[in-house]
Design brief:
Blueprint: E1 2-3, E2 14-17, E3 26-31, E4 36-41, E5 51-56, E6 66-72, E7 77-86, E8 89-98, E9 104-110, E10 115-118, E11 121-122, E12 134-141, E13 148-159
Antiparallel strand pairs: 1-13, 2-5, 3-4, 4-13, 5-12, 6-9, 6-13, 7-8, 7-12, 8-10, 10-11
Length: 162
């Protein structure tokens, strides 16, 4: 479990925004005194339009097949993302989720529902997402809405559903 009420959790997260490709969107992960939050502003200028944060994970056991995310959103659509490294290849997996402005929500994501992606495009023939291959967790916003965003994260819990 990742507990975002811990004041130092945000320090493990790194922002990657569209400026890596010439865009000017901003985003970061910070602590607001009670939880960590993913904040920033999307811009569509210079072919931009995404902001993300991610962190490395300790090894997960192979019996884990789902993750529960508790959050307070701003009414926008985000992606929960996992990165794997297997046989020398890095693959990103995404699952979109919608938020309701100001409302605390909790959603369970099953690993077999994640889609493999590369630079926003779906990959065909990618291996199924399995816990023991996951090296990184992330959040991304790319909803083509050039406005500020705020996603407060309360917890991430890895689960085993039989």
């Amino acid at each position: 479990m990742i507990d975002f009420s811990q004041p130092n959790e945000h320090q493990y997260w790194t922002a990657v925004n569209d400026d890596v490709m010439g865009g000017i969107s901003t985003g970061n992960f910070s602590y607001d005194g009670s939880v960590s939050q993913f904040t920033g502003e999307l811009s569509l200028a210079n072919n931009g339009g995404f902001s993300s944060v991610n962190r490395l994970l300790p090894p997960l056991t192979n019996d884990i097949n789902a993750v529960n995310l508790s959050y307070i959103g701003d009414g926008r659509t985000y992606q929960l993302r996992f990165t794997t490294w297997k046989d020398g290849y890095r693959i990103n997996y995404k699952h979109e989720f919608e938020t309701i402005k100001g409302q605390q929500q909790s959603k369970t994501f099953y690993f077999n529902d994640f889609k493999a992606v590369f630079r926003g495009r779906l990959l065909s023939g990618a291996p199924e997402l399995v816990a023991q291959d996951i090296k990184q967790i992330g959040l991304l916003i790319a909803d083509k809405t050039p406005l500020p965003f705020v996603l407060k994260i309360q917890s991430v819990e890895f689960l085993n559903f039989k």
